[in-house]
């Protein structure tokens, strides 16, 4: 079996631009995303539909979630491009058809294999909220229409491609919200992610949610995401002493001169710092293996020294060693980037580091040294970022891994895929739990904006109802609570669902924007929300509603389908 | 860029047998697992090592975790085969090398690209605990030796491949423990998994941890895992009435006769049940779209009817409808499999269903009908399984998804990768948090068994110390707590680390066993543990120790490296 990885479109590994109208998009980034990446019951159902001659009946399914994650009141929708790449290339190979034939229980008729052989998504239409949008419970993220058998086969892969993507993008957005706009946020989660493309997906969708860069080289190549990273503790402890450094010369930044013994220059600076007026007594002997590691790294990357300073002792070894190397680099016209703290009290240590840097700037007259960058990276999450803010800190960049990429506080988003119409007949899924009752009908979905420019409410309407109009009063009803309703006069009306896969309907296809545009959309949408929906503690729920007509219809259908109880 | 998916070894999609001695294993199952699937800092470090002429220095790294997950006292090790597939095929393409050259900060020398071009894992040796073993904190799961630059490049992918694999296998084992040996456990998590191969990985490693089957067709094909699944709520609600069923005939199981109107046969049975002595009054009118769906499914799969009975009302509609169809099938010599419950009070509903089935068996004289299988599948996890056990239930099979595959209660295992020796010099990583101090030296690792056949303690020794011997008393010391120590006279000694990748050392290579053997090993190892280590509440920690000699050496090195404080 040979499959193609379709991540980068060209040799350079640059971000794919997405298909233009009419062009078939490339296949999924992960070549394991095939039509077999689905639950067996989709095939048994497809067979049963086919056997009953029902497989071509036109069905409409909504993909939506019921509850915002992480105790918040918003969600970022992501994963759409991979969904479109999947359905655009949906086609069974002969090997796959043989496998299904062997796997289906009982005797599978040849005709079904022929049916699978001819199957693609040309008769499917997919409508979606644009990727990177802020979205809310119950409102469809995707509406998929088509022959029931093929749309069922799509259920599991679409859920898989949207669930984690949206969850981790939302998590990233929440981390960005707490960290604030000015901080650099780095995604460092690959090693702890749930499998290889858990890592690659995390890098992509955290970037959409507002992160600035990733450590994951494969994601950098697939998606053009900026890459960051310098060295680990192992690098530091792999050195024993400065004697190990054989090649000691370093050319100046402008190439005009050369320092023959950079190691001695570093040692001279370390001595100057040690006996300086303002820093005298802060440290005695720094760790020499650490000093050797920083010096060696600086010789390899004189313009990019970002030193991990906590292998032995941050204040008494790591920071002085870094400063000695940074000042030696400065003599040669290079500017060190900064330090990384990976343990201990990050608020305290970052403030001490800042003081140290400012003292150096003053004492040795090195302009800008006080602003040397401080990165922190030890098991960070929303709570620890919030605590750091409250304590006060001097961190410029945060490297966040485990909690971000595995969505530790809530590891799954519960998107579901529900039949809402078949053969133009609306369908409802009942449940004793009202929050699990589905909203029937092929629906239009709109976001209504108020006078202050904030989104006020999302409203779902029956497909044939007139759309809400700017300046026209409309009644918005809670779908299940009859007493909750409000009139709205929208200042702006946004239709949420756009056509990303028209099939053979002849409709225009929305472009899939490049990753950077998706990220910008996300950032802009988050900024546009009313602040009380966004706060971490007790956020106000955003309102999701249905039209009066749809409300009446839901409840008519519900009464119609639910059995009448008999108390005994 | 073209990459090959190497999951199935042959057309049939059967489980790969693993390489035999001397053969190069196939590449990783997920073709996205390439040498670029690593953190950028591995490349910057490799460059700095290369630039310092240090890249060939021989280093030893341990991969281990510090704490068992899920509040338990054991972990199942998994992911080894994928690690070996990865290192066996570790090789850069020209595209990848160009990407690294563009990505490294500053000017990357040509010599480094030449170095990468020639790089593979032939000089690397990898020792590991066999996959499917029960393992404990601090003891290396993998010990990797080789030139420091290449072993650093392996760090992130090896962690990625082991972390989630071991976490989810452990989660599966814990679910199996609560469910008991006799229940069928089905993994249903694909739609909620963290990305496509989060789903595929979950299916593989849950199978290792003791699950019986998966719904994930791709995983079935890649790994030969048994597949299960029948139909969803959408299938039920896609039908409106029995009139939709056009092709109503069904041949008997033995082919001797044919029923021309299976629909009428079903209706007749529903009437008989309704007015039977023991079931009279249980239900009035069942839902006809549900009855049509079950009937249609039975016509497609007469030997495999497993009906989802909770779309409308379990007791008053789903179960009677299923029984009517099952009895009609029985008339034709077929045996229905059973029902699935996906909502409501599973303990109560399963008991009611069992009563109903037993009443049918008695009333209509259908032998075995009382034993009709009951599957349950609504947001199940360890806690709900435990609660069901306490309440009493009649469930035969559990379908478990979200909580299992995303490891909801703890979404990450914190495996780390620490340098323990370079150029034959032991290295230690210090930390103010004692649990984070690494155990230095290239070590031997042994499991010592007691008289009753249970494992008693794991012990790590310096590489050149004699191995523990059966019948010989040995002192086992806690690595960091001087007062915790015990003499042990082992009845059996098992060397834990085996050579799975000898590189060019000429050592014999352990076979990678087929998946089923890994699963059997896991089940056997779990059964072999002393019960108090395994219980859900307050389990006894299993002891992990070091030899007296290694203990002394750790503490000598620690004092040597740690700076002496100065109180001011």
UniProtKB/TrEMBL annotation, chains A, B:
Regions that span the bilayer: none
Protein family: Belongs to the NAPRTase family.
Keywords from the named record: Ligase, Phosphoprotein, Pyridine nucleotide biosynthesis, Transferase
Residue ranges of domain Nicotinate phosphoribosyltransferase C-terminal in the record: 442-553
Top enzyme category: ligase
Origin: domain of life: Eukaryota
Nicotinate phosphoribosyltransferase N-terminal domain ranges (all copies): 36-163
Post-translational modification remark: Transiently phosphorylated on a His residue during the reaction cycle. Phosphorylation strongly increases the affinity for substrates and increases the rate of nicotinate D-ribonucleotide production. Dephosphorylation regenerates the low-affinity form of the enzyme, leading to product release.
Gene3D superfamilies: Aldolase class I, nicotinate phosphoribosyltransferase
Protein name: Nicotinate phosphoribosyltransferase
Keyword Ligase: yes
């Amino acid at each position: 079996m040979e499959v193609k990885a379709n991540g980068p479109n060209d040799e350079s590994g640059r971000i794919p631009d997405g298909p233009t109208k009419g062009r078939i998009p490339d296949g999924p980034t992960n070549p394991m995303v095939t039509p077999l990446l689905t639950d067996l019951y989709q095939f048994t159902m497809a067979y049963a539909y086919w056997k009953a001659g029902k497989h071509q009946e036109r069905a409409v399914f909504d993909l939506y979630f019921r509850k915002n994650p992480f105790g918040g009141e918003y969600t970022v929708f992501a994963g759409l491009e991979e969904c479109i790449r999947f359905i655009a290339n949906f086609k069974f190979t002969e090997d796959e058809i043989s496998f299904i034939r062997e796997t289906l229980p009982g005797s599978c008729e040849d005709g079904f294999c022929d049916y699978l052989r001819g199957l693609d998504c040309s008769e499917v239409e997919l409508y979606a909220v644009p990727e990177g949008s802020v979205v809310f419970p119950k409102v469809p993220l995707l509406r998929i229409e088509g022959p029931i058998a093929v749309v069922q086969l799509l259920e599991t892969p679409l859920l898989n491609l949207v669930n984690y993507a949206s969850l981790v993008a939302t998590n990233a957005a929440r981390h960005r919200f707490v960290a604030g706009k000015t901080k650099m946020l780095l995604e460092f989660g690959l090693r702890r992610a749930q499998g290889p493309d858990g890592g690659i997906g995390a890098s992509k969708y955290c970037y959409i949610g507002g992160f600035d860069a990733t450590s994951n080289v494969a994601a950098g190549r697939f998606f053009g995401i900026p890459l960051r990273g310098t060295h680990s503790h192992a690098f530091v402890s792999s050195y024993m002493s400065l004697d190990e450094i054989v090649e000691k010369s370093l050319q100046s930044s402008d190439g005009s001169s050369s320092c023959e013994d950079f190691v001695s220059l570093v040692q001279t600076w370390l001595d100057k710092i040690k006996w300086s007026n303002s820093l005298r007594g802060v440290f005695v002997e720094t760790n020499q293996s650490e000093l050797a590691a920083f010096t060696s790294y600086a010789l390899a990357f004189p313009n990019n020294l970002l030193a991990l300073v906590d292998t032995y002792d941050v204040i008494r070894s790591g920071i002085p060693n870094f400063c000695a190397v940074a000042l030696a680099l400065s003599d040669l016209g290079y500017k060190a980037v900064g330090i990384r703290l990976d343990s201990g009290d990050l608020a305290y240590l970052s403030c001490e580091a800042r003081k140290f840097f400012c003292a150096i700037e003053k004492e040795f007259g090195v302009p800008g040294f006080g602003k040397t960058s401080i990165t922190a990276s030890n098991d960070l999450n929303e709570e620890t970022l919030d605590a750091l803010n409250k304590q006060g800190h001097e961190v410029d960049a945060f490297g966040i891994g485990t909690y971000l990429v595995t969505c530790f506080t809530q590891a799954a988003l519960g998107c579901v895929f529900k039949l809402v119409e078949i053969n133009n007949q609306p369908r409802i899924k009942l449940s004793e739990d009202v929050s699990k009752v589905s909203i029937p009908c092929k629906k239009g979905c709109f976001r209504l904006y108020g006078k202050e420019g904030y989104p006020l409410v999302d409203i779902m309407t029956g497909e044939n109802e007139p759309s809400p109009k700017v300046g026209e009063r409309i009644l918005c009803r809670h779908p299940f609570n009859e007493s909750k309703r409000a009139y709205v006069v929208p200042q702006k009306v946004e239709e949420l669902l756009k056509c990303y896969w028209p099939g053979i309907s002849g409709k225009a296809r929305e472009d899939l924007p490049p990753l950077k545009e998706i990220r910008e959309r996300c950032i802009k949408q988050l900024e546009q929300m009313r602040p009380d929906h966004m706060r971490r503690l007790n956020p106000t729920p955003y309102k999701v509603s249905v039209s009066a007509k749809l409300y009446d219809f839901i409840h008519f259908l519900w009464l119609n389908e639910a059995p009448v109880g008999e108390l005994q």
